[in-house]
Amino acid sequence: MRVLVLLCAMVLLVPATCAAQAAPTPQPPGGAGTTPGPEARRADALPVKRVALYKNGVGYFEHLGRVRGNQSVTIDFTSGQLNDVLKSLTTLDLGNGRITGVSYNSEAPLSQQLSALGLPLGEVTAVSEFFGALRGARLEARTPGGMVTGRLLAVEKRTRTRGDRESQEIDELSIVTDSGEVRLVELSPAVSVRLADRDLNQQVGRYLGLVASGLQQSMRRMTISTAGTGERPLFVSYVSEVPVWKTTYRLVVPSKAGAAPFLQGWAIVDNTIGEDWTGVEMSLVAGAPQSFIQQISQPYYVRRPVVPLPENALLTPQTHQAALGGGTGTITGRVTDSAGGILPGVTVRASAPGGAVAGEAVTDSYGRYQLTLPPGTYQVQFLLMGFQTPRLAEVEVASGETTEQDASMRISGVQEAVNITAEPPRRQTLMAPAARPAPGVAGGAAGGVLDTSRVADRLASLQTAASGRELGELFEYRIKEPVTIRKNQSALVPILNSEVGLEKVTIWNPSGKNAVPLAGVWLTNSTGLTLDGGSFTVLESEAFAGEGLMDPLKPGEKRLLSYAADSAVRVDAKTDGGPRRVERVRISRGTIVQTLQDQERRVYTVRNEDTAPRTVIIEHPARPGWILSPGTPRPAELAAGVHRFRLPVEPKKTATLAVEETRPVQTSIAISGMTGDELELFLRGPGANPAVEAALKPILGQKQAIAAITRDLAARKAEMDRIATDQERIRENMKALKGSAEEKALVRRYTGQLVEQENRLDVLRREMTGLEGQRTKAQAELDKLIEGLMLEVTL
Q1: Of 150, 305, 419, 756, which sits with the fewest C-beta atoms within 10 Å of its C-beta?
Q2: How far is residue 125 from each of residues 128, 202, 203, 577, 763, measured CA to CA in Å?
Q3: How many domains does the chain have?
């Protein structure tokens, strides 16, 4: 309860704090002996008038002040800001004057600046090194024994031993006097040395100045010089690196029946740029335009090539041929502001019909521009941050001619926005009256018992301090009242207070951390504004209920948010896999395509132990390739990777949700590659169907016939191989026989066998030729049957 009181007090007092902060801060009186504090502004400083902060860590700043005559103004930056400022700076004299120059203190490396001096000294120098760099210089050394004047010969370190044998290292100067005498001077606290050479004294002074400037390299001062007559406004804008502004929300769920929930948004803004923001117009932009850092504030040196002088000079003048074709034309002109002041740095863009950019130029320091374009008709627009964008349509460009087109630009004013009118803070007590204050409580007159039923009503009555509008892909919260934030301080600014659509739910995701049911809400952004991403805190029944994170929300978008664990809900999930079945068979151009279905059923069992009903949102994984079966309830929402099912659960009851899914899987089989046995097995498998069997039976018969011919060919081929092997054996035996009568009889016998075998081989060759022909014919008939078969059957 005490935490709630402190929270409410903080919420109610912040607007008053902002209002007090916006009031001018009294300045200390001047006068003799008065030292202005750190809050005092320099007379030549140009104040910040507008700040726009972005989510990518950059801010857009506008300074606006008045100058008189040839006055110069200054703006202080940090070294980290300067690079961004230099690549985005825009300066405009909005009266009868002009900008004559912009300068800032350089940040060349100290070692490089020291190397430009004539003294060989580093950033850290000892006394002996200092005098060593002054060799040959004229010195005056005042010692206890008198004055020694002359030129420095050397500086040496010597070790001196005292009477107690304690050694001490000392520095000793060798000085050659005007009379040629060499005097040794020991450097001690009793000795002072003066540089008698004026130029050398100035060099030492510059050295010490450079070393001192290294201590202040974090601060950079930019000076803007102007020239003109009378008093006139001066405008400066730039982009700078700043801390990212943060968003935090309060989601209030009232306990009163019929009361609408509402969302309160706050922006946390940090000022770390080294300058106060006093009474500035502030915009907070939800978006991240492209931006980068480039070290252009540091002097950059490159090694240049050495090019020898030419040996011959081209003395004879020469001419060049004219260009062929229709030539080009020119658009030129001058760009000014509404008061007639010149506008340098304006981007001038010419677009051809259809929107294609044909040319682009930037105005110079006199506001002039020039575009060279092919002949045609163009639309010309003028772009400069902080100014409205005028467009010139139907600008004709003729070959060889120049078209004059001047333009005037006005500073951007307040554009239409979704405004929420702020009301002045009203004093209202949140305490119910009590008979008497509790003893010992400070401020007894305001004592009492906290009436928490009025907290939600008071929070809902608070008004936002910002208006919102779309900026292309970005969204801007523009603070309605001027804001004051001192340097190195932060502020909490209310930017949203609106009713929202809200449904309390319990969220369960089986893949979540520990798979714990989470208390959450289904939030509908009915504010009409884009909600930036950030943290949110839930207040329910005037008490803290939890907190979480929210991604950016567009108007009308619905989002599921979780903020706490729901200990009253238990969820159990079980998965059953079904058998794979064939759903469809399609035969086309010799290929059998089977469409099979994988089946899976997951049952969620939810138990509600609370005395209040629950709406449980079950996030079922949405897996690639799997689809919900017709008997499964329709999900309430499909998000990235999940189906969200809504399951109401009564108090002390159990409810179940069955989710059935199927996944189609296709397999392809080439009929020509199947054997008869494989085809016969397919007809007896899961894809068996009378229509499929009738279509494939002729093909099966033809494959069987071809298989029979192939077997006959194989048998004859095997017989021919056996005969060839036997003939080889007979011929080897005949080689071993001699000329006896028995051997001659055996030769005749072998010869007769060879003749019979050759006759059989002739018969086998003729039969194989016939079988090959039969198989070729049968294969052609099979190919014709396969090619002509078209069938699709749903099983």
Answers
A1: 305
A2: 8, 18, 15, 82, 115
A3: 5
